[in-house]
Backbone:
């Protein structure tokens, strides 16, 4: 029997409630497909800060190092908002894990599932039969990790990129495109930024090794417009750390609810951190109303990308679609005439449909 060790970091806010549902679904998959999934729970985020004075305890890093993948909830919340910059919960926990494990490739799919086409804020003629965009965001370089200065009357954030950093994320994008619609759009600001000129240059060079994939380019400002105007024209988007941060939130909203979107952050060994895009949602935490689908689909991405379990991953995705087709909805995606279910209710329905 195949045995996989998963570090489970529930974090803060809705993290623990949606994680519980993801585990429920993974347990069902492991039964059906005869896998052994071993969960090692560890603390990070505000909960870790309160217990141990740091959002990323060394014990948590050790647990992750001993695991085959990290399933992550979300961290942070208003309780910790006034911490000084060097102790900021999200920065310490998330950016710390990204850097420590060299998780340079952030895959953020923005998919409109057919039963939810009406949930998109876009006009129906634009949404059509839905769209499926994969944003690949460089995650360990750029302005997030450049030298920082914060003085009384002066501040700066350095934005740098190296050839190798661009090439490795570009390869991930082209490889992904080969398995999809064979199109990559490079999004940058090379009309102004040197780091973007370099980014575009090495994306273009990498493209030479992938003659079957069509490559085009957009400046980030234009990309935000085109994404709204013609989302169905996009397949894979590859972009820098900060532009990917912004563009992926925009794409998320176009699908209707951020509560639906999973993500994977990978290094070159296939090790990854899997987390929902939605954040801790402190306003609805503990109410059993949050949408667990993003966390559940993050589990599906983990099975596929870190464990190579394609069928098992697909089984989860199909179960999600089935439950949506049967008209079950959490509050965030509720429409009149549908059946409203709780966080736990949605998790159970999805597990039952595996
Ligand atoms: C994200 C988040 C993080 C980021 C924050 C919480 C540091 O917005 O994962 O997109 O900016 O990368
Ligand atoms: Mn973000």
Residues:
């Amino acid at each position: 029997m195949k045995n996989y060790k998963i570090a489970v970091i529930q974090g803060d806010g809705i993290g623990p409630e949606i994680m519980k549902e993801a585990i429920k679904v993974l347990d069902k998959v492991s039964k059906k497909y005869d896998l052994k999934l071993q969960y090692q729970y560890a603390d990070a985020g505000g909960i870790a800060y309160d217990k141990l004075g740091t959002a990323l305890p060394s014990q948590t890093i050790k647990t992750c190092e001993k695991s085959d993948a990290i399933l992550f909830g979300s961290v942070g919340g208003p309780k910790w908002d006034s911490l000084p910059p060097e102790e900021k919960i999200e920065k310490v926990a998330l950016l710390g894990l990204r850097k420590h494990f060299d998780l340079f490739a952030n895959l953020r799919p923005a998919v409109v599932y057919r039963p939810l086409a009406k949930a998109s804020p876009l006009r129906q003629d634009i949404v059509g039969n839905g769209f499926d965009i994969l944003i690949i965001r460089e995650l360990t370089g750029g302005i997030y990790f450049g030298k920082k200065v914060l003085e009384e009357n002066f501040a700066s954030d350095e934005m740098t990129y190296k050839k190798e950093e661009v090439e490795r994320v570009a390869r991930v994008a082209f490889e992904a495109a080969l398995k999809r619609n064979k199109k990559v759009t490079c999004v940058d600001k090379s009309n102004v930024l040197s780091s973007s000129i370099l980014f575009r240059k090495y994306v273009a060079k990498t493209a030479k090794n992938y003659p079957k994939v069509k490559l085009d380019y957009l400046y980030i400002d234009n990309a935000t417009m085109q994404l709204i105007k013609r989302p169905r024209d996009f397949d894979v988007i590859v972009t820098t750390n900060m532009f990917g941060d912004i563009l992926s939130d925009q794409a998320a909203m176009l699908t209707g609810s951020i509560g639906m979107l999973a993500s994977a952050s990978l290094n070159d060994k296939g090790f990854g951190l899997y987390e929902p895009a939605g954040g801790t949602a402190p306003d609805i935490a503990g109410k059993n109303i949050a949408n667990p689908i993003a966390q559940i689909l993050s589990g599906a991405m983990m099975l596929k990308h870190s464990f190579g379990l394609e069928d098992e991953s697909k089984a989860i995705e199909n179960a999600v679609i089935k439950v949506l087709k049967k008209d079950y909805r959490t509050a965030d995606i509720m429409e009149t005439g549908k059946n409203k279910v709780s966080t736990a209710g949605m998790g159970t329905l999805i597990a039952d449909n595996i």
